[in-house]
Every structure is written in C-alpha cells, then in structure tokens.
C-alpha cells in the first residue's frame, strides 16, 4: 500500500467509517459474510440450472420432434430469459450490491410454488421438487439473516 493510500485510509478511519475503508481497500470479498456468499452461490446454481433447462428445451424444439416446434422454442427462450434473474441476483450479492437481494428473494419465492407443483406431480419429479424447495428455503433464510442484510447496507431496525 502506498503512503498516499495509507494516509487516505487513516483519514477515513478517523472520520468514523473503518469498515468501508477496509472493504474498499481489500475488495468486496473481505466484507462478504459466508452466509451471503452461500446465498449468491445458491442463486447462481438456480440460474445455471434454468439456463441448462432453457438450452435443452431449445435443442429439443429444433432437433427433436415436438408436437409444436414453435411452442418448444418459445418455452426454451422464456426459460433462458428467466435464468437471467437469479444470475443477476447472484452477481449483485457477490459484489455486495443492495439491489441484488430483491431479485434473489423474488427468485426464491417464485421457486416455492414450482417446487410444490413438482412434488404434487409424483414420480421422479418429487425428488426434484424437494431439492428445489430446500434450496429456496435455505436461500431465503440466508438472505434475511441480519449478517447478510448488514453487509448489504440494509438497516432493518427502524427507530
């Protein structure tokens, strides 16, 4: 660290914001709690899974013999577009951006009825529904944790 940087940091420390100075000097990883890292990883996992499903639907719509190729391609494109939400949320959470929490919570809330539908369908889909439900609930718990909200700069105490 150069002398100019250390002088700037010490002035910042005296101004009463030692955590922000340390976070900006070391990057976001230094101030990111493990719970927030786990929430970002779960959101990214969901986004990758949705993207893979979208690609699969597109390939099957083009190369396979669906009843309606147009419907299959539209479904694939829609699922690919939906994959953007959890991937964007994961990026925001990873970078400690306050806005990343909103799309992450929305993704988890949307995943719960999907999980219920999979569980209700029966067969092999029950396992997929249970896994999705567990991931969604775990991510929600991680996202509302006080450590995570504090790291994102969200003040839940009103007074």
Automatic annotation (TrEMBL):
The chain crosses the membrane at residues 38-60, 72-90, 102-119, 125-144. Residues 1-30 are annotated as: Disordered. Coiled coil: none annotated. Residues 15-30 have a biased composition (Low complexity). It comes from the Bacteria. Keywords: Membrane, Transmembrane, Transmembrane helix. This is Integral membrane protein. It comes from Streptomyces gamaensis.
